[in-house]
Amino acid sequence: MKALKTTILVCLAALVSSTSAFAQFPGDVFFLDPSVAVAEGGTAELEVVVFAGANVVGATLLDVAFDPAAAEVSLERGGSALLEKGFVSRVSAGTASVVNLNSASLTDPIGTVSLARVLVRPLGPAGSTVNLAISVRSLLRQDSTPFPSARGFSGQVLVVSAAGPSAGAPSASLKSGTGDSAETLALEFRRPGSEVEVLSLAEQDGLFSAVSQTVLIPDSSAPSEAPRDE
């Protein structure tokens, strides 16, 4: 019976890993939707999550860096009820800090875990971009051991016109939020091998809208079917 229980636990752990987003490593901390748009004068919400795999999240300490001249930022609790009581946040000039402490369970949460919601109110006009960057200061499992690898990723908020053209295929001049290609931006949002939605700004008649592009980030370490030279 003990062997059967062990087999079931191993299968559940494999299931958790296989159903998570592509190319994620335990310890990855990222924005669930890393590229979002908001109308001028509005507030965008980005959810910060950690991929823990089969590890139980015990405690986290992370910073979200931003340009205080570009946006006002505040923090709210994430979606994990087990981390709700241990949530502490602080916002200073250019840094929003989040602490999560799991004092409720020895077996949960696992998989993809919500840590915080970042509320961003851009101060710039339509056509501007607010860039965000997650820095992981501490990421512990429930037994107080650190995750073998911990990495934070980036995000962006594009400011569009309050009454601009609807988003769609680009038919006007495109202006990327940071001047980088969609593939370059995607690498800041996720690991190679992942698929991620990247928004760009499109300008038409002085109005800005968001154009969506799904990017499959190349993974140079993945097996290739290209013929090898003899």
Structure report:
The chain is mostly beta strands. Helix content is 11%, strand content 44%. The chain has two helices and 14 strands, in the order H-E-E-E-E-E-E-E-E-E-E-E-E-H-E-E. The protein is globular. The N and C termini lie far apart (54 Å). Mean pLDDT is 85; it is low at 1-21 and 166-179.
- Nearest-integer average pLDDT: 85
Question: Looking across the biggest beta sheet, what order are the strands in?
Answer: 2-11-9-4-7-6
End-to-end Cα distance, whole Å, is 54 Å
Shape: globular
**Biggest beta sheet summary:** 6 strands, mixed
Radius of gyration: 20 Å
Strand tally is 14
What is the helix tally? Answer: 2
Summing up helix and strand content along with how strands pair, one would put the structural category as mainly beta
N-to-C SSE series? Answer: HEEEEEEEEEEEEHEE
Strand content: 35-45%
Low-confidence stretches: 1-21, 166-179
Helix content: 10-25%
